[in-house]
TrEMBL record:
Official protein name in the record: Elongator complex protein 4
Family indicated by similarity: Belongs to the ELP4 family.
CC terms in the record's Gene Ontology section: cytoplasm; elongator holoenzyme complex; nucleus
Native organism taxonomy: Eukaryota, Viridiplantae, Streptophyta, Embryophyta, Tracheophyta
UniProt keyword annotation of Phosphoprotein present: no
Length: 382
C-alpha cells in the first residue's frame, strides 16, 4: 500500500511538474514581444517583411542567425528585400543598426516602404490560396460577417479592432510607392553608420558589439528582437575593400555575437567582386543564404518557358535555410521563385510555372524539345 501510494504520489508529482512546465511555456509564449513568433524546438522568428518569404523559410528569419543576400550586378533588387526587412522592424519598434557604403546612411531610411493600408484584402486572398473558387462566395461571406460585427458593436469599435489587429501583425504587406512615416524614422532606437572611406572594420565591429549587448538572449521573458542591416559589405567604395581576410574575420565575429543575442543580421554583398574561394567562404558562413537574379529584358526563350513572365521583375533563389535545435532540415517546395509586384506595390514570391507547350508545329518538334531540355538541364527549379 505504501509503495502504491508512493507510486501514485510519484505519478501525481510527475503530472504536476509537467503541468508547471507547460504553464511556464505558455507564459513565455504569451510574453512574446510584437514582431516575434515562436516556432518548434524553442526557435523564434522575426519577419523578413515579405509574407511569402516567411512562409517559404518556415516562419521567417531565425532569431540569432545571419542572413546573406547575394546581389545581382544588373539590378538593385536586393534593396527590395533589405528595405522590407528594415521597414518591418521599424513598424514593430525593434532596435535597428544600419550600415551602408554612403556618406549619409540615414538618407537610406527615407526609402523604406510604408505598410499597405488595405492589407486585409491581400491577407484574405493569401489565406484563401490559389485553389479557391472565384465565384465570390468567400468574399460575400466575409462581407456578411463584417456587417454583422459592425451592426452589433458599431463602426468605431470595428475600426479600432482592425487597427489593433494590423498593429500586431507578424508580417505586413508594404507599399513600395509610399515612404514610411517620418516620425517612425526619427526614433532613438535607430542607428546608422557609414562604411564608406573606412580603413578597417573595427569601428563597425565595435558598434555591432555595443548594439547586441543590449539584446542578450534569455530563457523566458519578453523577446526584444533587434535588427542589423548591412548593405554591400564588400563594395569597392569601402575603404577596407580588398582586405578579404579582415572581412571574413568580421563575419565570423558578427555571427558569434548574433548567435548569443536576440537579433538577426542581414548582409547583402556583391559576390562578383570577390574571388571564388572567398565567395565560397562567405556562403559557408551564412545561416540563411539567398541570391537575387534580375530578368533579362525581353528574353523570348524565358517568355515561352514561364507563365506570367511579363509580371516578373526577378528571381529569388534559396540556397540555405537556418535551423537550430533540430536534425530535421527544412524541405522547400522549390528553390527558385519569381519576384513579382502585386498591384505594382507589394512584393510577391511565387513558384515558377512552366508554360504549356505549343504543339502547332507537330508532335515531332514537341518531343525533340523535351529531349533537348532533359539533356541540357535548366537553371530554374519548378
Amino acid at each position: 500500500m505504501a509503495a502504491a501510494a508512493a507510486g501514485t504520489g510519484g505519478q501525481a508529482l510527475g503530472r504536476s511538474s509537467f503541468s508547471r512546465a507547460a504553464s511556464s511555456q505558455t507564459a513565455s509564449s504569451s510574453s512574446t514581444a510584437s514582431g516575434v513568433k515562436l516556432g518548434p524546438n524553442g526557435a523564434a522568428f522575426v519577419s523578413s517583411g515579405i509574407p511569402d518569404l516567411d512562409r517559404i523559410l518556415g516562419g521567417g528569419f531565425l532569431l540569432g542567425s545571419v542572413v546573406m543576400v547575394m546581389e545581382d550586378s544588373d539590378a538593385p533588387h536586393h534593396l527590395l528585400l533589405l528595405r522590407n526587412f528594415m521597414a518591418q522592424g521599424v513598424v514593430h519598434k525593434q532596435p535597428l543598426l544600419f550600415a551602408g557604403p554612403m556618406k549619409e546612411p540615414r538618407a537610406f531610411l527615407g526609402a523604406l516602404p510604408a505598410p499597405v493600408a488595405s492589407s486585409k484584402e491581400d491577407a484574405r486572398q493569401r489565406a484563401i490560396g490559389p485553389g479557391a473558387t472565384s465565384d465570390g462566395r468567400a468574399s460575400d461571406e466575409g462581407l456578411r460577417i463584417a456587417w454583422q460585427y459592425r451592426k452589433y458593436f458599431g463602426e468605431e469599435k470595428t475600426s479600432h479592432a482592425q487597427h489593433r489587429d494590423n498593429k500586431q501583425e507578424f508580417s505586413n504587406d508594404f507599399d513600395l510607392r509610399k515612404p514610411l512615416e517620418r516620425h517612425l524614422l526619427n526614433a532613438q532606437h535607430i542607428e546608422c553608420l557609414s562604411t564608406q572611406d573606412v580603413d578597417n572594420l573595427s569601428d563597425l565591429q565595435d558598434r555591432c558589439s555595443t548594439f547586441l549587448s543590449k539584446l542578450p538572449r534569455k530563457d523566458g521573458g519578453t523577446l526584444n528582437a533587434g535588427q542589423i542591416a548591412i548593405q554591400s559589405l564588400c563594395a569597392p567604395q569601402c575603404g577596407y575593400f580588398g582586405k578579404d581576410w579582415d572581412m571574413v574575420s568580421f563575419i565570423r565575429s558578427l555571427k558569434s555575437m548574433v548567435r548569443s543575442s536576440n537579433a538577426v543580421a542581414v548582409i547583402t554583398f556583391p559576390y562578383t567582386v570577390l574571388s571564388n574561394s572567398f565567395c565560397k567562404r562567405w556562403q559557408h558562413l551564412a545561416d540563411t543564404l539567398l541570391s537575387i537574379k534580375a530578368i533579362p529584358d525581353e528574353d523570348k526563350d524565358l517568355a515561352k518557358l514561364l507563365t506570367g513572365y511579363q509580371d516578373m521583375v526577378g528571381f529569388l533563389h534559396v540556397h540555405k535555410v537556418a535551423q537550430t535545435n533540430s536534425q530535421v532540415p527544412v524541405i522547400l517546395e522549390a528553390s527558385t521563385f519569381s519576384l513579382k509586384l502585386r498591384k505594382r506595390r507589394s512584393l510577391v514570391l511565387e513558384r515558377l510555372n512552366q508554360a504549356p507547350v505549343d504543339g502547332s508545329s507537330g508532335p515531332s518538334s514537341g518531343s525533340s524539345g523535351s529531349c533537348s531540355s532533359s539533356v541540357q538541364g535548366s537553371q530554374l527549379d519548378f
